[in-house]
Every structure is written in structure tokens, then in C-alpha cells.
Design brief:
It contains two helices and three strands. It has 71 residues and is α+β, with helices and mostly antiparallel strands.
Length: 71
Amino acid sequence: MSRTVDAYMQLPYRVILTQDRDDQGGEGWVAEVAELPGCLSQGRTRAQAVVGIRDAMLGWFSVALEDGRDS
């Protein structure tokens, strides 16, 4: 059975938030989805990282479906 991006977005995922610091001392947050390798987002705040991870997930699923990974 083939699912849509919207169907995959409705499933439960574990988002991991990690505080990060760059080489220049700037601080921010990284959000990544444990179940989706390479799906991550960054933001200056936790909220920005979480909003960004939703966009990253949409892109991740779109590419996966285009590549035929729809099970």
C-alpha cells in the first residue's frame, strides 16, 4: 500500500533537540528525527529548530517517495 507525505507526517516520530555551539561561539539548537536518517534542522531557539524540522520532514518524505521508498 502506498502512503502519501501527509500520511507519513501523521505517524509518531521522536524529535531529539540538542543545544549546539559553532566555532565562533554562537549558540543554537539542532533538531533531528531519530527514525529518519539525515533529517535535521537548526535554529537559534528550540522553537525555530522544531518549526524547521517539520519542513525537513516534508522534504525527507517527498524525496523518499520519489525514490520509491513508500512502504
